[in-house]
Write a structure and sequence with these properties.
The protein has about 375 residues and is α/β, with parallel strands linked by helices. It contains ten helices and 17 strands. It is globular. The structure holds nicotinamide-adenine-dinucleotide (NAD).
Length: about 375
Amino acid sequence: MAKPLNVGMIGYGFMGKAHTNAYCQVNHFFDLAYRPVLKAVCARSADKAKPFADQWGYESVETDWRKLIQRKDIDLIDICTPNNTHAEIAIAAAQAGKMILCEKPLAMSGPEGLKMVEAVEKAGVANMVWYNYRRVPAVTLAKQIIDQGTLGHIFHYRAKFLQDWTISSQVPVGGQALWRLDSSVAGSGVTGDLLAHCIDTALWLNGPIDTVSGMTETFIKERPGALSGQPEQVRIDDASAFLARFANGSLATFEATRYARGHKALYTFEINGENGSIAWDLHDLHRLQFFEYSGDGRLRGWRSIHVTEKEHPYMENWWVPGLQIGYEHTFIHQIADFLRGLAENTQPEPTFKDALKTEKVIDAVLISAKTGSWMRCE
Ligand SMILES: NC(=O)c1ccc[n+]([C@@H]2O[C@H](COP(=O)([O-])OP(=O)(O)OC[C@H]3O[C@@H](n4cnc5c(N)ncnc54)[C@H](O)[C@@H]3O)[C@@H](O)[C@H]2O)c1
């Protein structure tokens, strides 16, 4: 019988749902020594949190995260709130001896992220950041292919994350759903929001980034304030692109925008090595494109691997070969790995310390975009 692990989740929005779904499903599909229990959900308004708690099966509701953190019956704090709250909550939770799962980006900046790393390390509590794209089976397969050396020497890494939801100048700044446009809450714009995912995946697949040269743009500089009702200056980056040199000598390009008309969440990456290439696309997330430069030249070509076989990462826990899984499963995989780590006394990645590396790249890109200089990432 799996041991209960009492979860206190803060925030019940997009990620609150994705994580809660993962807690509900994980033990149905993975054989684990621990079982998450939906002990409490926390939001500022009980009126809004209560229906969420009832719908998903949380036992109780809190309206102050500080109270939640002090509760003796909570083992793990899950931070699903906007970026400007992550550090304060995580540091307090670490001091209270709770395990912590924190949404990405880890922090508003590298120095803030460092304080979070120091807090969890001092407290010795299990910690992880929800860079969930690592656990798309096709992306995990890409990692396996790279780690076994199949691509050989890596020359290029290319990533982009494209959306189109802020093109209208009437999309307001700030407030409940639009905190991503408010720099005091989000930190940065697409750099910390979308590129953070691209950077985390890239560091995982291709190793450390040494230097970057970035550029950002805010296309619409004034928008209606969702809370003030007055025009407000927009301080986030609407679009961000950077060149990078990896420590392994490869060159990279990264791009993210919310102004790519027609694209909703087009996260893609491609890696080119001396013996092969791989490419992945979030819109077709169960496929990995693979080219291998070997064998009979007449038969060479890109293959599209349908990542649904029992041999593929995570897939033996799901349906029969040929039937694919989706976005929500990445969160189930992440919590499964976290719970397995607890049982085995290992610390699955990405930890706060791993996620800090992404913060350092983000900081370097934003400084480079302001100064026009190449920046080192450490
Ligand atoms: N891993 C991913 O793919 C992914 C996707 C989306 C968002 N995120 C990250 O998840 C976090 C939340 O994003 P979201 O899209 O779920 O946002 P959201 O706006 O949908 O939800 C945020 C929730 O936080 C609550 N909240 C805000 N301040 C609070 C406070 N002081 N105390 C308690 N509750 C508070 C809000 O009421 C809301 O329920 C962000 O850091 C974001 O970057 C990650």
